Each structure stands twice: as structure tokens, then as C-alpha cells.
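Here comes an entry:

___
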Amino acid sequence: MLRQPDFEAVRPVEHPLHHRGRRPVTPGLAEEARRRFGALLATRYSCTEAGIGLGTAFDDPEEDAIESVGRPHASVELSVRDADDRPS
């Protein structure tokens, strides 16, 4: 949507909040979306079946939503493991 040549002429009404999910977003695209939509950004990382996982909140520091996938949801236990399933 942001790459459409006429985006500025027909852009949607500004929304105060924007939720980003589905696949990773580059920091550059996140910054551009925030600027051009005039919106706060929250990022999520989870599987469709669970609906919860990692995420940022709309009131987190701007760089958290742009540079990370956030923190685990309160009901999620998270660990980083190597290829042999050992904690890293």
C-alpha cells in the first residue's frame, strides 16, 4: 500500500493505532508506516493457532516496536534454544 504511486493522494484516514503482524517488518518499513499513517505501532510474533506469543504495546518505546518482536505475553513461557534443544 505504501508503494502505490498515488498513496499520498488517496491515503486512508489517519489511524492513531496500527497493529503489525503476520510476518517480520523491517525497521525502515516500520518507521515509514508510522510516519505516513500517523500511527503508533505494535508488533506481534505468534502462531495463528495460539493467537498469543510475543509483542509490543502501543505505549512501549518507539524503538521496541521497530526493532523487536516484543516481550512474551504473561501466559507464555519462552526460552532460547540451540539446534540440540539446549538453553542458549
About this structure: Strands lie at 17-20, 40-46, 53-55, 71-72. The two ends are 39 Å apart (CA to CA). The chain has a mean pLDDT of 75. Helices lie at 7-10, 27-37, 62-67.
